[in-house]
Amino acid sequence: MSVVMVVEVGVVLALALAAASVMAAEYSVVDYGARAGGRADATGAFLAAWAAACGDGGERPVMRVPAGTFLVGRAYFRGPCRSAGGVVLAIDGTVVAPPAVGHASWVTFHYAPGLAIRGGTLDGNGHAFWACKAAAGRRCPPGTTVICFKYSKPVICFSFEFACNLIEFGV
After folding, report:
1. Contact 104, 86 (CB under 8 A)
2. Which of 21, 101, 119, 170 is most deeply buried (CB count within 10 A of its CB)?
3. Which residues contact 20 (CB under 8 A, 6 or more apart)?
């Protein structure tokens, strides 16, 4: 093996190690017990994954929701988080609310400045509510707010969609 080849291999290994050391830590909801399929309540797993990501003082830790449908009841994600850059919520699938969340917020982020939400769908399960609103002359119960941000400025949201409900930005 020539000296040049040994140096090249050494440089490649050094670059790989450097890249691995700066990669953000990921906390998958599946690692905390969530199961795709949309039938089993994954609220506890989501809260546990958030607590781990929020407690990570590294650079932009990621809370990962993999492909699939995950049923999540009312969830209150509280900070402040240790990472100066905030947490990234990366959704590759769909997070769906149970049929009856009520008129309160379904998902709330409180004291989560720098939060970035990327990809996926948040389905507030508001089909019945909007059908009621579409039928003229009916009294409908108040709808559920899909997501609420309180004391969490700035929040960055991109490449994801809300299905059938409302968004609320609090002070």
Report:
1. no
2. 101
3. none
Tokens representing 84 are 């100066």
**Which ranges of the chain would DSSP assign to H, the alpha helix?**
3-22, 43-54, 127-134
Q: In whole angstroms, what is the distance from residue 34 CA to residue 142 CA?
A: 29
Reduce the DSSP state of residue 15 to 3 states and report it. helix
Across the strands, what pairs with 88? 62, 116
Per residue in 32-61, pLDDT (tens digit) is 999 999 999 999 999 999 999 999 999 999
Burial class (CB in 10 A: 0-12, 13-18, 19+), 98: middle
Residue 113 CA, chain-centre distance (Å), reads 14
Nearest residue to 122 via CA among 97, 142, 87, 98: 97
At 59, which helix (H) or strand (E)? Answer: none
How confident is residue 144, by pLDDT bands cut at 50, 70 and 90? Answer: confident
Model pTM score: 0.78
Check if the beta carbon of residue 28 is closer than 8 Å to that of residue 49: yes
